[in-house]
Design brief:
By secondary structure, the chain is mainly α. It is built from seven helices and no strands. The longest helix is centred in the first third of the chain and has 40 residues.
Length: 234
């Protein structure tokens, strides 16, 4: 081969390399942009991607791997020059996206498992809320106490209100629930037939602790019921 022919061949190779270098640089930059976009979203500390979003990211990694293989097959014609640097970078990105596929699949499986476990768990009961009583146990204590009041029902109600509101520490009845609130709630809840149960209707301004009779026996019974409820001994 003549010297001039060698120069022509050298020029041809350099031209091919320069043209492909630009294409290679553009391709690598697009891979980098996609990889950064996916990993930024995948490892975000502010908002974790949902299962549906993870599936979208999974599709994107799959599309990348399909596209890079198809593209490299097109540009790798026998006469095309491809630098070793490009081939090395290409392999690195293929490996990185394959790893991403594995990570995303594992995250999807973990999220799905958590969703299944969450569905199996019983619903959290609504927090206790009552106009008069602070806890379910305090309402239970009241109901058990008045169910055994055979001598003077109204006096028994006044007694247990004063015990739970005035003498317990901490109180078993809301501090804001005064005698009128308690009486109104009681009458609306327990006095179903006005004419037959008129004698059980509480006054809106009832007796103080000092004016309630028969306290000693009631205090004993009150304490016994309270202890039983605390021990779940029903």
């Amino acid at each position: 081969m003549e010297p001039n022919e060698f120069k022509e061949l050298e020029k041809f190779i350099l031209d091919c390399e320069q043209k492909n270098q630009q294409k290679h640089s553009e391709a690598i930059q697009s891979w980098k942009n996609l990889y950064v976009k996916i990993t930024d979203e995948l490892y975000s500390t502010e908002k974790q991607p949902t299962i549906d979003r993870l599936k979208v990211l999974q599709v994107q990694t799959k599309q990348f791997l399909n596209a890079i293989r198809n593209t490299t097959q097109i540009i790798r014609k026998p006469e095309t020059y491809i630098s070793e640097t490009f081939l090395k970078t290409e392999k690195e990105y293929i490996k990185s996206f394959e790893d991403l596929q594995t990570i995303i699949q594992l995250l999807i499986e973990v999220r799905l498992k958590k969703e299944i476990e969450k569905q199996k768990q019983p619903e959290t009961p609504a927090p206790w809320s009552h106009l008069i009583f602070k806890t379910p146990e305090s309402l239970q204590l009241f109901e058990k106490f008045i169910s055994g009041e055979n001598e003077d029902y109204k006096s028994g109600c006044y007694f247990i209100y004063r015990m739970m509101h005035d003498r317990e520490n901490p109180k078993l009845i809301h501090d804001s629930a005064g005698p009128s609130d308690f009486s109104k709630w009681h009458n609306e809840t327990y006095i179903k037939e006005k004419e037959k149960e008129k004698e059980k209707e509480l006054d809106y301004n009832f007796r103080t602790w000092e004016n309630i009779g028969k306290k000693k026996n009631r205090e004993i019974r009150y304490k016994e019921l309270k202890d039983k409820i605390a021990k779940n001994d029903n």
